[in-house]
Amino acid sequence: MTALEEISTDELMREIQRRLECQNKPDKRLILIGPPGCGKGTQSPKIKSDHCLCHLATGDMLRAAVAAKTPNGVKAKQAMESGALVSDDIVVGIIEEAVKAPECRNGFILDGFPRTVPQAVKLDEMLSAKGVSIDAVLNFEVPDEVLVERVEGRWIHPASGRSYHTKFAPPKVEGKDDFTGEPLIKRKDDNAETLKSRLQAFHTQTQPVIDYYAIAKKVTEIHANKPASDVEAQIAAALK
User: Fold this and answer.
1) I need a labelling partner for 138 at 20 to 30 A (CA). Which of 42, 64, 214, 221 fits?
2) Quick check: 165 and 38 in contact, CB under 8 A?
3) Is the pLDDT of residue 35 over 60?
4) pLDDT of 59
5) Which HAMAP family match (predicted)?
6) Does residue 65 come out as left (phi exceeding 0), alpha (psi in the -120 to 50 range) or beta?
7) pTM for this structure?
8) Mean pLDDT, residues 175-189
9) What values do phi and psi take at 31, rounded to 5?
10) Quick one: 100 exposed, middle or buried, by C-beta within 10 A (0-12, 13-18, 19+)?
């Protein structure tokens, strides 16, 4: 963490102004759904910044809960060490713990959950008990044949989740994050063979989740096989 004395006055004032503006932002609880390589990783940081939300990725939350030894983190660790799957109840419990953080006071972006209808039902039950609900589900649509090229050229800044692409969105300096200069990484599963398997699972498991939220008229189709600026415009219109 950067020491306060190392932050310029201008940067500090901008951050104060941002936090003041966030106080007037309406609450939003969002779910992003889409196949691997659909562009969620590119758009999430902008949505997070524009609407003052926290970004909750399932894997990151699990690791953080285990490291912090929260009650659900302990249960998750026990399940993983025994070779069992982490139950939906535990994952929803971890989400419930995560949204209590100050950075989630305006709401959150859920990425990677729910993947099944039973998970969506449990999530809705947890939120309903708090008197809130999911406000919008953004469904990023990209033809399967386009995704192979996207995924094989993708590079990630692991600390922030920022996503780059060797062809479509290259970093300013090859192999380096634009903001921190830290090295980018390539995920082990960013290859055509793994993508085919993941797409099959996505279409089988996740389409029913889209249908579930569509019944409640909460789904907006994002035509994500377009330039980033066009996708941003679609998202902005959906979240007015």
Assistant:
1) 64
2) no
3) yes
4) 86
5) Adenylate_kinase_Adk
6) alpha
7) 0.79
8) 93
9) -120, 130
10) exposed
- The answer to whether residues 29 and 126 touch, using CB atoms and an 8 Å cutoff, is no
Average pLDDT for 119-143: 97
Length of the chain in residues, anyone?
240
Per residue in 65-81, pLDDT tens? Answer: 999 999 999 999 999 99
| Confidence bin at 4 (pLDDT 50/70/90) | low
Residue 2 CA: distances (Å) to CA of 12, 67, 152, 162: 12, 22, 34, 20
Q: Which amino acid is at 145?
A: E
Q: Tokens 């035509």 identify what position? A: 223
Please identify which residue in the block is written with the tokens 């993947």: 115
Task: Tell me the angle at which helices 192-215 and 144-152 cross, rounded to the nearest 10 degrees.
Answer: 130
Catalytic center residues: 40, 115, 154, 187, 198
Tokens of 85: 């799957």
What is the rounded CA–CA span in Å between residue 63 and residue 98?
12
The Cα–Cα gap between 28 and 52 comes to 9
Please state, for a pLDDT cut of 70, what percent of the chain lies above it: 98
Segment 202-224 mean pLDDT: 94
- Spell out the residues 6+ positions from residue 183 whose beta carbon is closer than 8 angstroms to its own: 175, 176, 177
